Amino acid sequence: MKQSLIIIYGALAVLIVIAYLVGGSAIIMDGINISIITMYRSFLMLVASFIIIGQLNVLLSADTIEKWLQKYNGIKAIIVSAVAGGLFPGGPYIYYPFILSFKEKKLPFYILITFIFGKQVYDISRFPMEASFVSPGIALIRHLITFPIPIIVGLLALKLYGSTVSINPTLKAGEKDDSNNINS
Predict the structure, then answer these.
(1) Average model confidence (pLDDT) for the chain?
(2) Residue 2's domain spans which residues?
(3) Is residue 157 situated within a structural domain?
């Protein structure tokens, strides 16, 4: 987070210098006034957004989502996996270890892919932030437009890899599975 703050404050300093060179201190004050108005309009939505995100983190545990994923197969599994990915709380440092546990549970590959796409595309905890920073209408449109993507990817993975293929737990990154190699 410290690096992010340095970058954002660096960009702020550069923009203030450019604004001063272009229009003097009057243009800097106009920009600050617009920022204050935007902050005032977004404040209540941001507070509600953080409360919603906190409640999602409390209500949806990794165990709950794991039970959902093991219960279904086929198109139901794809839909549940996509939704579970979108509802899964936390950032990559939390959900990538969870995804790693898929290989121990012998979950099919299409569930893994659908879960990852669901997390990246849906991420329900991002919706309140998008709604407060941009607008609820635009955030809703973005979610509606991207809604079919994880499901389509899951169906493609099911079609290409079938439902019996799971992640091979003995392989390391970059290794190939020779079990289907007809030249050996």
Answers:
(1) 78
(2) 1-42
(3) yes
